Amino acid sequence: MTKEEKKRLRMQIIQLLDECDVCKHRTELGASITVCKVCPIGKKMVEISSKLENIPKQLEYLDGKPIQMPWKETEEQFIIENHDKMSYTQIAAELGRTPTSVQSKIKKMRRAGLISKKTNNKLSS
Fold this sequence. Notes:
- The protein is mainly alpha-helical and 125 residues long.
- The protein contains five helices and four strands; from the N terminus they run H-E-E-H-E-E-H-H-H.
- 50% of the residues lie in helices and 8% in strands.
- The strands form two sheets. A two-stranded antiparallel ribbon has the order 1-2.
């Protein structure tokens, strides 16, 4: 789906939300808006939004290489606390990263002295 198609779907949702503004079934809680899924407007909104939800996340590329996302402090802290308890794959799943990127990050953190050197750990796979 192109950027323009996504934009068009989002604009349709915004227009439907405007129509739904006076509906007695609409509720707002902070930044979240709940619409009635049985009224015609709500049904249409669900239909349109489901098209956006099924779009797989695409990696962004620069000069043919994937753009690397910087590591957050919370992710690094999670690795420090769990590198000896969880496998690369498990850590990657928790952080939304690839096992290879987690393995690479752990190696860098070991070299920097942020986590202990590798012991006879069979969790590394």
